[in-house]
């Protein structure tokens, strides 16, 4: 198992334990194809752990076309803040 895959499993567990709905796309496809598939399904948030992110303990989170790099341990807080009642226009 690659470091990226292990980190993705960890992220999935962190989000599920924080009661944040998530799905891990771990099909045997390229990252680009998985992202295209998520867009086609209108998935509102994408979290990607590539080689660079895995090395740094980070995740690339894309919400509404805006991407941020976040430390894995802080992703659930970041998502809660992004979708809190106060942040909705």
Structure description:
With 89 residues, this protein is of the alpha+beta class. The chain has one domain: 3-Layer(aba) Sandwich (Rossmann fold), CATH 3.40.50.800. Helices cover 44% and strands 18% of the residues. It has helices at residues 3-17, 31-40, 51-56, 75-82, and strands at residues 45-48, 58-63, 66-71. The chain has a three-stranded antiparallel sheet. β2 and β3 form a beta hairpin. The radius of gyration is 13 Å and the shape is globular. The N and C termini lie far apart (42 Å). 9% of the residues are buried.
Number of strands: 3
Top CATH class: Alpha Beta
Per CATH, which architecture?
3-Layer(aba) Sandwich
* CA-based shape: globular
Identify low-pLDDT runs: none
The span between the termini is 42 Å
> What is the overall pLDDT average?
86
Per CATH, the superfamily is Anticodon-binding domain
In what order do the strands lie side by side in the largest sheet? 1-2-3
Quick overview of this protein structure:
The protein is an alpha+beta fold. Helix content is 44%, strand content 18%.
How would the blueprint of this fold be written?
Elements: H1 3-17, H2 31-40, E1 45-48, H3 51-56, E2 58-63, E3 66-71, H4 75-82
Antiparallel strand pairs: 1-2, 2-3
Output the keywords.
about 90 residues, alpha+beta, Rossmann fold, 4 helices, about 45% helix, about 20% strand, globular
């Amino acid at each position: 198992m690659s470091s990226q895959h292990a980190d993705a499993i960890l992220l999935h567990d962190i989000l599920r334990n924080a009661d944040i709905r998530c799905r891990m796309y771990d099909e045997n496809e390229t990252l680009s194809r998985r992202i295209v598939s998520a867009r086609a399904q209108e998935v509102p948030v994408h979290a990607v752990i590539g080689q660079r992110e895995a090395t740094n303990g980070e995740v690339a989170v894309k919400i509404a076309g805006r991407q941020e790099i976040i430390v894995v341990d802080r992703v659930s807080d970041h998502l809660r803040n992004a979708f809190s009642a106060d942040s909705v226009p």
